[in-house]
Amino acid sequence: MTMMPPKPEARPDRVSLWRYMKLFRQDILSAQPARLYRAWMAEFRTPFFRSFMVNQPSLVDEVLRARPLDFPKSDRVGEGLRPLLGNSVFLTNGETWLRQRRIIDPAFEGGRLRDTFPAMWAAGEAAVARMETGEVEVEAEMSHAAADVIFRTLFSIPIENEVAAETFHQFRAYQRTQPILNAAAFVPLPRWMPRGFSAETKRTARAIRGLIAQLTAERMALIEAGDAPDDLATKIMTTTDPETGARFSTEEMVDQVAIFFLAGHETSASALGWALYLLALHPDWQDKLATEAEAALAGGMEFGVMSKLKLARDVFREALRLYPPVPMMVRETVKPERFRDRDLPVGSQVVLSPWHLHRHERVWENPDGFDPGRWATENGKQCLREAWIPFSVGARVCTGAGFAMVEGPLLLAMLLRAFRFERVEGRDPVPVAYLTVRAKDGIWLKLTRR
C-alpha cells in the first residue's frame, strides 16, 4: 500500500487564546482545526483583533488579484521578520512597495532567466558532486544547493566564497531561533516596546545584514569602477525608478538582498526537500522522472532543456501544492468589507492559507495524495488557475516565481539523473511551519548512485 504524504494532526476545534498562541509559536499548521480543510471561510476572535481565514477561491482572487491595494500586507507578520528584513519589498505597502517593485522587477523579466541559467546549472552540478551515498539529511543539502544558486545568480560567487559561506551559516542559526510570528502578532504593542526577540535572533540578524552589506559595498565599488559582472545584483543596483530616477541606497539594497536570500533559498530548499521525499515514497514516478532527466540533460547546458523537463516541473509543482513553503499570508482591511454575509471591520486580519487551500476537500480531487499527473486533468487545470498560490498571485506575486520554476525542476532533474532516493524506515518527516514549511527533524533518505 502506498503511503500518504505526511500531514500534521489538527488541534481540537476549541482551545483558549493562550493555548492557541502557544501552539502557533510551536507550529502554525498543527495549531489549526481540521474544519479549515473544508471551510470556505472561518472567523477567529481575540481581545485585540478579528481574523478571517478565506479559502473560497473567488474571495482569494478578490483579495489578491482584483483589489490588492484594498488589502495591504499586515504588519503582524512583519513584526517577526523585521530584524532581518528591515523594509524589504516583502514587508512594505503603498508607494514604498510600488517604488521597490519598479526597481526590482526588471531584473527578473523573462530574458534574465536565460542569463542566470548557467549559474543555476553550475550550482546543480556542484550539488550533485557534494552529495554522498547512504543515509543523507536532504533538507540540509537542498538548503546548501539553493543558497549556492542565490549567491551565484545574485553576486556571481559560489557558496564556497568566505562571505557567502558565513552568511549561510548565520542564516541556519537564525532559522532555529525565529518563528514567523511573535507576541506582537497577537497583541498590538506600541513602537517603543521591546518585541521579545531572543538575543540569538538579534545577533544572527545583525551578522547576516553585516555580511550582506559587505557584499553590497564591494559590488557598488565594482559598478563605479566599471568592472561589475552582469548579474542580478548589478542589474538591481543600476536600475533607476522610472518615475523618480532614484536607485536603491546601500541600506535599501541590504533589505532587498535579505529577502532575496530568505525567499530565494529558504523556499526553494523547502520545496526540493519535500519533492525528493515524495519521489522516495513513489518509486514509479521517480523512475519516470529519472528517465526524462537522462534524455533531456544529455546534451549539456542549454536553456532549451527546460521545455523537455515536463514531469520534473509537474513533480515540483505538486510538491509546492502539498508543502507550500509559505503556508499563510496575512492581509488587512483598510475599509469595511462584507464576505459571505459577514462583516469585516476596518483592521481585520484576512488570512490566506496556501496550506489549506492546496488541500481543500471541496476544491481538489485526492487533496492529500501525491499525483503529478493531476495537472493534465480538468480538475487540476482549473485548480492551477484558481487554487494554487505558492508564490501568491496578482500584483504581489513573488518576483522570483519564474526563477523558482526554472531552478526547482532543473535541480530535481540533475539530482534524479545521478541518484536513486529511498525512504528510510522509521524516519518519515513531520511537517512543521516555522519560517517556512520544513520537517521537524529533517528529511532523511537513502541515496544510491544510478
Key traits:
single chain, alpha+beta, 15 helices
Overview of the structural elements:
By secondary structure, the protein is an alpha+beta fold. Helix content is 49%, strand content 10%. It is built from 15 helices and eleven strands. The chain has helices at 17-26, 57-66, 75-85, 94-104, 110-130, 138-155, 162-175, 199-225, 232-238, 250-281, 283-297, 310-322, 354-357, 378-386, 401-418, and strands at residues 41-45, 50-54, 134-137, 329-332, 337-339, 342-344, 349-352, 419-423, 431-433, 437-439, 444-449. The strands form four sheets. A four-stranded mixed beta sheet has the order 1-2-7-4. Strand 9 and strand 10 (437-439) form a beta hairpin. The chain is globular and about 55 Å long. It starts with 16 loop residues before the first helix and ends with a strand. Residues 189-195 have low confidence and may be disordered.
Gyration radius over CA? 21 Å
Q: Please tally the β strands and state the result.
A: 11
Approximate strand percentage: 5-15%
Largest β sheet strand count, sense and barrel closure: 4 strands, mixed
Helix proportion of residues, in percent? 40-55%
Number of helices: 15
Strand order of the largest sheet: 1-2-7-4
Shape: globular
Cα(first) to Cα(last) distance is: 25 Å
Kindly state the mean pLDDT as a whole number?
88
